[in-house]
Specification:
Blueprint lengths: L2 H8 L13 H21 L5 H23 L5
Membrane topology: Multi-pass membrane protein
Keywords: Membrane, Transmembrane, Transmembrane helix
Subcellular location: Membrane
Length: 77
């Protein structure tokens, strides 16, 4: 399959993102708020068992929330 065939085939099916541009700020701020709460809880209850329960979700929420907020304010990564 050549690049031109792929280009022509993709012309009929536009890309629709999972989270629209209008909702990125809401999703980003919600994820950052969740990350802030989970980080606070993890800081109060530090133990080895809380790493997968609070630490990992907090870091994932912060990572995705930061990217959504960067995209929501117009800085594209």
């Amino acid at each position: 399959m050549s690049l031109n065939e792929v280009w022509e085939g993709a012309a009929g099916s536009p890309f629709y993102p999972t989270v629209s541009k209008d909702k990125q700020f809401l999703v980003g701020s919600t994820l950052l708020l969740i990350a802030f709460v989970l980080t606070g809880l993890f800081g109060l209850n530090r133990s080895f068992k809380n790493i997968p329960i609070l630490g990992v979700p907090a870091s994932l929420a912060f990572g995705f929330g930061a990217v959504y907020m960067i995209c929501a304010v117009g800085v594209y990564v």
